[in-house]
Write a structure and sequence with these properties.
396 residues; alpha+beta; tRNA-splicing ligase RtcB; seven-stranded antiparallel beta sheet; six-stranded mixed beta sheet; 11 helices; 17 strands
């Protein structure tokens, strides 16, 4: 579908790729579009919904400044997907044992690995650069070593899925864990203080920015780049652990031996990148959006009980070569807990091996937009390559 509506009353217009947008998200988009350094327009993806400061599902090109809250606190959050040589008929009838093994091998929630240096090779790849940042800003500290290769909580997940040909995929969603959160929170506060020092008043306090003539700008960009690398390494290490859990099932005789295929995708969806759009080099913030350049593969997940999609980008310039990053929340976590019961969760995740307790009630599928409607609103942004349906889900 083409652009569904345009909001014209800001410094730049907002091009919206859906009609399913509430007043709170619309107000946030107007605030972002009023910032003096936003270039050309703001794009709102089909999964757009309210977020802290900036709307989730928004793509924001800036020149000469960056808004830390627009990038968010889960810096580098994104997806990995990998197809295996296994097929549905080779999986055991009961996947509870495999889920339990993955939950033993991959720490979830606030947890990390008991041995803080459990993966020397992975730690070495991401250690460079953080020491300088922490030396200048000691408040940026968290258990990043032990949390490398861990899932986290909230909407993060690990899934085993089947595609349209009943081939087995691993898919996971996670970010930069506690250290990314600490970096994000620290620089959001620094940006607010920078506004006070300069006597500037953003339309929303959480839209405080760092101008590129400030040392904080360059320190933030270095920190955000590090966190994005850490998030990517975190997902790669989890893939390694999940493959180990599957091979343990092979050793127990519950799965046949398997191989990896050449279909593997990695993509961020909460990040900032230097790109060229509408005649200018910009800092492009994708908050809840993936890059969907011409021919580029991406991952768009649904909820715990819905389909997900592997897509190929069409390079739509109006979306800044972007697309939705998932279904997008329809209601807050608190509202989902008030509105639904454990029985509702069991019904909506029927056929999926997953937690079905009150601890994950806020992730019930009905708390999210309909993923098929989201996909129908972005036929100008991506083509569908594979349709996936989960059979196993691990949540924090």
């Amino acid at each position: 579908m083409p652009i569904r509506q345009t909001i014209e009353d800001g410094q730049v217009p907002v091009k919206v790729f859906t009609d399913d947008i509430d007043a709170a998200a619309t107000a946030q988009l107007r605030n972002v579009a009023s910032l003096p350094f936003v270039h050309h327009h703001v794009a709102a993806m089909p999964d757009v919904h309210w977020g802290l400061g900036a709307t989730v599902g928004s793509v924001i090109p800036t020149i000469g400044a960056i808004v830390p809250a627009a990038v968010g606190v889960d810096i580098g959050c994104g997806m990995n997907a990998l197809r295996l040589s296994l097929t549905a008929d080779q999986l055991p009838d009961n996947l509870a044992g495999l889920r339990a093994q993955i939950e033993r091998d991959v720490p979830v929630g606030f947890n990390g690995h008991p041995d803080g240096r459990w993966c020397e090779e992975g730690l070495a790849r991401v250690a460079t650069g953080l020491a300088r940042i922490q030396a200048k800003y000691p408040a940026i500290d968290a258990r990043w070593q032990s949390q490398l290769g861990s899932l986290g909580g909230g909407n993060h997940f690990i899934e085993l899925c089947l595609d349209e040909s009943d081939r087995v995929w691993i898919m996971l969603h996670s970010g930069s864990r506690g250290i990314g959160n600490r970096i994000g929170q620290f620089f959001i506060e620094q940006a607010k203080e920078e506004m006070l020092r300069r006597g500037l008043q953003p339309p929303d306090r959480d839209l405080a920015w760092l101008p590129d003539d400030s040392p904080l700008f360059h320190d933030y960009m270095a920190a955000v780049g590090w966190a994005q690398d850490y998030a990517l390494e975190n997902r790669r290490q989890m893939v390694r652990l999940i493959l180990g859990a599957l091979r343990h099932q092979v050793a127990l005789g519950r799965l046949p031996d398997f191989a990896l295929t050449d279909e593997a995708i990695e993509c961020h969806h909460n990040y900032v990148a230097r790109e060229h759009h509408f005649g200018r080099d910009v800092l492009l913030t994708r908050k809840g959006a993936i890059r969907a350049g011409p021919g580029e593969l991406g991952i768009i997940p649904g909820s715990m009980g819905a389909r997900s999609y592997i897509v190929r980008g069409l390079g739509n310039p109006d979306s800044f070569c972007s697309s939705a990053h998932g279904a997008g929340r329809r209601m807050s976590r608190g509202e989902a807990k008030r509105r639904f019961t454990r029985k509702d969760l069991e019904e909506q995740t029927r056929g999926v091996e997953c937690r079905k307790d009150k601890g994950v009630l806020d992730e019930i599928p009905a708390a999210y937009k309909d993923i098929d409607s989201v996909m129908a609103n972005q036929t100008d942004l991506v083509d569908v390559v594979h349709t996936l349906k989960q059979v196993l889900t691990v949540k924090g």
